[in-house]
Specification:
With 142 residues, the chain is of the alpha/beta class. It contains 6 helices and 4 strands, in the order αβαβαβαβαα. Strands 2-1-3-4 form a 4-stranded parallel β-sheet, sandwiched between helices.
Length: 142
């Protein structure tokens, strides 16, 4: 896959993520504050982003998500730890009736493979490629 094709795959996954968040009032689960910052820079509202690493257990985070009754996108880092966190959270949430998306994480991982392993670098990577390929990134409102 060329760099441009990878970026187009990323934009497609980002479009799906934005639809879940903006139209379905979904939540995005990330590992930390820097991940939230990166996602807000590429157009996601901060109040839709839930952090795993805020001193709560995975079970407590899952209970918080379940109580909100909104679709959840698992977007942990693309390293071994992030993969395990995503799998564990998917298992916890399985059977709760919540729509849980792990496909966006997989698609973004494919798009950034070789360039990034963490969500926190996503905005810089996306901005660089948007400029290189003259493809605008969405804004929070648009």
């Amino acid at each position: 896959m060329t760099t441009h094709e990878k970026f187009l795959e990323f934009l497609s996954a980002l479009g799906r993520l934005r639809r879940i968040v903006l139209e379905e009032h979904g939540l995005v689960l990330v590992e930390g504050v820097k991940d939230r910052r990166a996602l807000t820079r590429i157009g996601l509202p901060a109040d839709s982003i839930v952090l795993l690493n805020e001193g709560h257990s995975l079970l407590e985070v899952a209970e918080g998500l379940i109580s909100r009754q909104r679709p959840v996108v698992l977007l942990t880092d693309w390293d071994g730890k992030g993969g395990k966190l995503s799998q564990h959270m998917a298992r916890i949430l399985h059977g709760t009736g919540l729509p849980v998306d792990t496909e966006i994480r997989r698609r973004m991982a494919r798009a950034v493979r070789g360039d990034l392993v963490s969500v926190e670098g996503l905005s810089t990577w996306a901005e660089k490629n948007a400029e290189a390929f003259r493809e605008p990134l969405p804004t929070e409102s648009g």
